[in-house]
Amino acid sequence: MCYLRPFFLRHQAKVDLVVGSVYGEMVKLITAYQAEIQAVRSLFTKIMASADLILRGEREGTSVQPQSPKGRQE
After folding, report:
1. How many Å apart are CA 22 and CA 27, to the nearest integer?
2. Half-sphere exposure of 43 toward its Cβ, with a 13 Å CA cutoff?
3. Which of 12, 23, 40, 65 is 20 to 30 Å from 5 at the Cα level?
4. Model-level pTM?
C-alpha cells in the first residue's frame, strides 16, 4: 500500500479526470436506461418473492399438502 500513495499523489489530477469521466458516463447511462432498470428490478423482485413462497412450501397463499403415493390406499 505504501507504494500506491506516492503514485496517486503524483498523478492525482489524471486519476481525478478519469474517475470524473467514468462517473459522468455512468450517470448518462443510468439516466438513459432508468425505465428499463426499474422494470428489470421489479421483475427480479417478483421472481424472488415467488421463489421464496415455493421454497417455503406455500403457493398462492395456501400451504402445499403432501400427497399420498398413487396405488396406495389409506
Report:
1. 9
2. 6
3. 23
4. 0.51
DSSP three-state, residue 58: strand
Q: How far apart are CA 22 and CA 28, in angstroms?
A: 10
Answer positive or negative: Cα dihedral of 59, 65, 69, 70. Answer: negative
Cα of 12 vs its chain's centroid, Å: 32
Enter the DSSP assignment of 68: P
DSSP secondary structure letter of residue 3: T
User: Which residue type does 27 have?
Assistant: V
Note down pLDDT in tens along the chain; length 74 residues: 688 889 888 999 999 999 999 999 999 999 999 999 999 999 999 999 999 999 998 665 555 555 666 655 55
